[in-house]
Amino acid sequence: MNNLLHADFRRLLRDRLFWVLTAVMAIWAIILFLNHYSDKIRYGEQASLDSMFFSFAVLTGFASAAFCSLFTGREHSDGILRNKIIIGCSRTRIYLSGFLTCAATMLLSTFAYMAVLCVLGIPVFGLFEGDPGGLLLIFAASALLNLVHVALFHLVSMLNSSKSASSIICMALSLLLLVAASLLLQRLAQPELIQQVQMVDGSPVVSQAANPKYLTGSTRILYQFFVDFLPSGQALQIASAQVAHPIQILLYSSGVTVLLNLIGIYLFNRKNLK
Fold first, then answer.
1. What is the 3-class SS of the chain, one letter each residue?
2. Which residues pair with 204 in a beta bridge?
3. Does residue 180 have a pLDDT over 90?
4. pTM higher than the cut 0.85
5. For 107-144, what is each residue's pLDDT tens digit?
6. At a CB cut-off of 8 Å and minimum separation 6, what does 183 contact?
7. How many CB atoms lie under 10 A from the CB of residue 181?
8. Do 102 and 72 form a contact (C-beta atoms < 8 A)?
9. Domain locations along the chain
10. Which among 46, 198, 206, 274 would be 20 to 30 A from 173, CA to CA?
11. Does residue 201 have a pLDDT over 90?
12. Mean pLDDT score of the chain, rounded to an integer?
């Protein structure tokens, strides 16, 4: 296992895709900082580091989809997977080594984003303003979010021998999950009461009425469950630094990561490599 990890990390450090991804995350931090700094100068808006620190979470799905499909896809196209098996490496260790390599990539690129934002943002916006315990939970949730995305897209890429097909499937899946989570959050954000205007004796009268789109009971619980369970739903909550149920999210992410890896290992051991 150690030899596999060493070989995979050595290949990773030579891969331009790794450095491009890290650079993109760092550049995104710079753009975000400049945008908030510009608003501060022009309009006097007081932004906090909290409001931008976790914005990267929305990007992790697409970044993981792109990296996992291309990096793992090369192992198929270049015959690296087959060569590893020929020299006696077990498929389980090959799978786990690939997962750990991709996971390390996403965590390191995220660290690059955070480091750049801290270096630029702290002198201008000050330190974090939120509760340290709450911020620590969101930080942990963001780290596990990376692992869930990697587990999902690594599974797809390891089971699909075509690099182009893996890329399309992973990117489409990432987009589909994000759209689904956005729709779920829109329904949950509906207010319980809405204002309506009625004409009484020729004069408009504003009153409050029950919102028919407001979710209640088991339906609301089900919607909230999917928002917390889906990695895209977690990403949108983390990006806004407003996580409704951080402990549940940590448990969901941990469980799903383990489950996806177990499923992936089982299927990869049964896959016929051409």
1. CHHHHHHHHHHHHHCHHHHHHHHHHHHHHHHHHHHHHHHHHHHCCCCCHHHHHCCCHHHHHHHHHHHHHHHHHHHHHCCHHHHHHHCCCCHHHHHHHHHHHHHHHHHHHHHHHHHHHHHHHHHHHCCCCCCHHHHHHHHHHHHHHHHHHHHHHHHHHHHCCCHHHHHHHHHHHHHHHHHHHHHHHHHHCCCCEEEEEEEECCEEEEEEEECCCCCCHHHHHHHHHHHHHCHHHHHHHHHCCCCCCHHHHHHHHHHHHHHHHHHHHHHHHHCCCC
2. 199
3. yes
4. yes
5. 999 999 999 998 988 888 778 777 888 889 999 999 99
6. none
7. 22
8. yes
9. 2-175+215-270
10. 274
11. no
12. 87
Over the stretch 142-162, which tens digit does the pLDDT of each residue have? 999 999 999 999 999 999 888
The residue whose two tokens read 């895209």 is: 232
What does the alpha-carbon distance between residue 55 and residue 28 come to, in Å, rounded to a whole number? 9
- Locate 129 and state its tokens: 């303003």
Structure tokens at 18: 């790794």
Residue type, 236: L
Residue 273 near residue 250 (C-beta atoms within 8 A): no
Please measure the distance between the N-terminal and C-terminal CA atoms of the chain and give it in whole angstroms.
24
